[in-house]
Amino acid sequence: MLKFLTMQKLIATLLFSTLSFTSLAFNTVVKSKLDIAKSSNGQPVQLRIVVTTDSPSYVGFPRTPLLADWEILKKQEIADIRTYEKNGKLVRTNIKYFIYVLKPLKSGKVPIPGFTVSVGKAQFKTETKIASVEPFTNGGNGPVVTNPLPNLPDNPSDEFFESEDLGLGNSAQLDTSKKIMFVAEVDKEEVFVGEMIKVSFNLYRRNIQDINHDYKKFPVFEGFLKEDLFLPRALPRNTVSIQGVPYQSTEFARFALFPLKEGLLTVDSFDLRYEIVPLSVNGFSIGGQPIPQTISSKPVKIFSKPLPAVPSDIEFSGSVGDFNWEVTPPPTNVTANQPFTLTITISGEGNIKSIEAPTVAMPTGVESHGVKPFPKVDENAQGSIKFDYLFVPRTAGQLDVPKLSWTFFNPKKKEYISLENDPMTIQVEGNNTAVANNPSNDKKQPQHELPPIQIKQQSFSSVSSSTSFVKLREWAVLWASYLSLGIFFFIRKQKNQSDEHARAKPWKTTESYILKKSSRPEGRLASLIDQYSREFITGVLSNENITPKSTNDEIIDALYRVTPPEYHKNILILKKFFNDLDHTRFAGKKSVKVSCDNQLKRAKMILEKVEQHITKPTTFS
Fold first, then answer.
1. Neighbour tally for 305: CB within 10 Å
2. Which domains does the chain have, with CATH numbers?
3. 615 contacts: CB under 8 Å, gap ≥ 6
4. Euclidean distance between CA atoms 196 and 306, whole angstroms
5. What are the distances in angstroms from CA 543 to CA 498, 537, 607?
6. What is the pLDDT of residues 561-586, one digit of tens each?
7. Which of 46, 65, 75 shows the shortest CA–CA distance to 113?
8. pTM of whole model > 0.85?
9. 385 with 227: CB under 8 angstroms?
């Protein structure tokens, strides 16, 4: 017996040692960081917890401590998998990122207690973080949150996480320590009012495989006149060298900007979405779910200077750039009362589409029939604008057209430049008498003899007060139509009142009210429950592009994306509940065993669970 107990202890000791060795064989690191550690006037702070482990065990969502001084506005989980070679073996590392957006409830140095993370049976606790919260300035009524939900960083891993702060202005400011950069590059930062600025938005990356690019937010160029130069459908990649470091570059947009006022102006930021494919240490794709990313360019400051004073002896219409022109005169011989065209083409680089037509002064006897502009600008901001002037001479003889002149401001030379054209002589052929008279007088108008109109005397029957133009049958049809419309509007009014009543008290008295007012209470009640459920769920899923018109599958997929894994089993209950509602609405009460009362209770319970687990809870009204 003693020998048996000794053997049992030995086996237990060996088993414990094996389990301990196995647990120690897995390397798990849990870190926390306050990415946004300061709060001004109630602005949220941002906490990131990173779990890196070689263990295949499940990594659960952190257990939230008692946050008496904080309110959780938003939380997000991002998973990443990396595979690399170590000591001749392929090692697989699981990384999970838990990101919290916390709103402070008081000011001062406010602690954030540690969160507990479970990796299998092992538990890890993060250290306490201290956030600096400035005093609120709204009279002590709690924090003022002007931007309650800052964008969570979509680049989760350490080498990507700082990329959200990129976007560095001109290429001279590029930082080669970054693996990915989205930069607004301008060709000049100090200009005159109306002078053209070319801005290009470029994405630079190295050792990163990025896919599925999409525009999240286009910049708003306040204080500028904007022209689109280059918005590609296909995104070619080019290899460039930045300070000796090779990068892949892609140009996503190019604009021409023209300052409309003097002073300090800002080229707004540009937000871009894309996905990163996980790579191994050798730069090859290891598969897995692509990681969604968001990156923004930094705003760029532009200083706009006023134009110099315009000399008194020139006429300036506001054109700024470097231009030349070509004047195409009309034929030297034209015919009276026949139109002719004079063309002026201005080409170069500048605010071409804003150029006003130069003044063309014709002598007396020539009518002007307007001018048509034809602008054309390429993707490099080089272009031209052609003006076609249409004139009609009314007097025969010689027309002396004075010289033409047009002035623009050249920002490179910092002076006003006038372009001139020599005077022109046009000979108008024709007869002045014929011109003065109406040409239509020389033509003999055709004469038409019409027979006189014959009016015949008609006889009418007498009309008395008893005469009726509408038969009795027609009166009956008319009144029946009015009665049908009245019944229709009455029923619709009753339905609207029912909906308003149910909206006011959706969970308390809806059942009894519908049972009294509706001939088919089960289907009517199921429709209302479905409506309330959809409005509630789509309200909290508005960030997922879910609307009340979304299908059940779309709603369920969105809930899977924004809820923790341990809640996914409840989503299956919600899916079945939606199916039951559909059966009740369209097939009637015979196909469903649950009563109206049970449906109401289930709906309330499910929606309360959704509100507890959704990333961004919203109250239902």
1. 15
2. 24-149 (2.60.40), 153-306 (no CATH), 316-435 (2.60.40.10), 492-613 (no CATH)
3. 74, 75, 76, 562, 563
4. 14
5. 31, 11, 18
6. 777 776 777 777 777 777 777 776 66
7. 65
8. no
9. no
